[in-house]
Design a protein that fits this description.
- The protein has about 240 residues and is of the alpha+beta class.
- The protein has two domains: about 120 residues, Beta-Lactamase, CATH 3.30.450.20; about 55 residues, Arc Repressor Mutant, subunit A (Orthogonal Bundle), CATH 1.10.10.10.
- The chain has nine helices and nine strands.
- Strands 1, 2, 3, 4, 5, 6 and 8 form a seven-stranded antiparallel beta sheet that branches. A two-stranded antiparallel ribbon has the order 7-9.
- Helix 6 packs across helix 7.
Length: about 240
């Protein structure tokens, strides 16, 4: 039932109340009329729904039947990032919380290489079983660039830790170590002593079961830590706006 028909059916002199039964229709109507890109995927990462803004943002050709399609089946530049996008879907479903990434590819009808922010929110049935994810997109605009934005190219930046092995403080050090900062520079960035950073790096190496910088870098690439950015560093260290 459309919103217009619903208004006709009910006495509009009464106060309209939002009910659980009506919530689904309201959500679809909200996405249909939104200028923000919205989409829904099932628990296999097959597309179920995209609004018009979502079709335009993803630069999906007119007439392309997207329902039931996987990311890699789309005739779009961002399809090459399908494995990382799919991993984000599973992260949201298994963690029971929003999973966030910044995806850089050729977006919009102008096919411009630019970063977009995508939070994925898990959807569950009444029994708590995963049905899929709902997501929206916002263009990520920045005023000053940090090292990891210097060479803009199709990529995925994860805002959620890809592994649960490390503490938040250890992840902070891993991030800066991957930027090739020295222990002394990392200590300055994090307002820590040089000895504290060295001790934490040693513990990180032990958890990774490596004993060299080459092994550290290989571990980070294998476990997608090279694409991870702590959200607090984005908010505190880079001038940007959505």
């Amino acid at each position: 039932m459309s919103v217009l028909n619903w208004k006709k059916e009910y006495d509009m002199t009464e106060v309209t109340k939002l009910t659980v039964d009506y919530l689904g229709e309201v959500m679809i109507s909200m996405m249909e009329h939104s200028n923000m890109p919205w989409g829904v995927k099932d628990n296999q990462s097959r597309f179920v729904y995209l609004n018009k803004a979502g079709l335009d943002m993803n630069n999906i050709p007119a007439g392309f039947d997207f329902e039931g399609r996987l990311d890699e089946e789309f005739p779009c530049a961002w399809a090459e990032l399908a494995p990382e996008i799919r991993a984000q879907d599973r992260k949201a479903e298994t963690s029971h919380q929003t999973a966030e990434i910044i995806c850089t590819s050729y977006f919009t009808r102008d096919s411009v290489l630019e970063p977009w922010y995508f939070p994925k929110i898990p959807i569950y049935n009444p029994d708590g079983e995963s049905l899929g994810t709902i997501f929206y997109g916002k263009k990520f605009s920045f005023i000053s660039l940090c090292d990891f934005f210097n060479n803009l190219k199709p990529s995925i930046i994860n805002l959620n830790p890809p592994v649960d092995t490390f503490t938040e403080k250890e992840l902070d050090i891993i991030f800066y170590a991957l930027q090739k900062l020295s222990s002394k520079d990392i200590a300055t960035k994090l307002s820590l002593s040089h000895r504290t950073v060295e001790n934490r790096l040693q513990k990180i190496y032990e958890k990774m079961e490596v004993n060299s910088l080459a092994g550290f870098i290989e571990y980070c690439h294998t476990n997608a830590l090279n694409n991870y950015v702590p959200k607090k560093f984005l908010r505190q260290g880079i001038e940007f706006f959505w």
